[in-house]
Design a protein that fits this description.
Layout: H1 5-21, E1 27-28, E2 36-40, E3 49-52, E4 55-57, E5 63-66, E6 71-77, E7 85-91, E8 94-99, E9 111-119, E10 129-133, E11 139-141, E12 143-144
Parallel strand pairs: 1-7, 5-12, 8-10
Antiparallel strand pairs: 2-9, 3-4, 5-6, 6-9, 7-8, 10-11
């Protein structure tokens, strides 16, 4: 059976629509766990923690905090190429964030980016740990800044 280009394109479009309806879009992993979305949100304040009574400090890099209905994730990296989230997965109270990796040029400056991680079903209250996979075996558990 042969297929014309038009039939192929129509079939591919239908498949893409079905995958989107099933929640298989970039940044989310299924498999019994809730589906998560990740959105860079420059309106979020930089994370802080209480260094001593009445004195807040900014962590020197990455961290996370639960907010009203979402998790705020702070990533640190060079401004070029910037930090981009490839996918977010949850298992047993741990949220694993996998970053996109590339071989292009990068800068040595430090840029903090704020991300809003939201779950489609369920609650952020079940999250106890957040780890970030930077690629190449560099997996880090982040400090909680609630």
């Amino acid at each position: 059976m042969s297929m014309t280009r038009r039939q192929f394109v129509a079939g591919a479009g239908s498949l893409a629509a079905l995958l989107a309806l099933a929640g298989c879009d970039k940044g989310q992993v299924s498999g019994g766990a809730p589906l998560w979305s990740a959105t860079q949100d420059d309106s979020l304040p930089v994370l802080t923690f209480e260094a001593s009574p009445g004195n807040d400090a900014t962590p020197p890099g990455e961290g996370w905090a639960t907010r009203d209905g979402y998790i705020q994730l702070q990533l640190a990296g060079g401004s070029i190429p910037g930090q981009k989230i490839e996918r977010v997965a949850e298992k047993d109270g741990e949220l694993t964030v996998t970053l996109e990796t590339g071989d292009g040029p990068s800068t040595m400056d430090l840029l903090l980016t704020e991300w809003r991680l939201e779950v489609r079903e369920g609650s952020v209250d079940a999250i106890e740990r957040v780890t970030v996979d930077h690629g190449g075996g560099d997996v880090r558990e982040l400090e909680r800044c609630d």
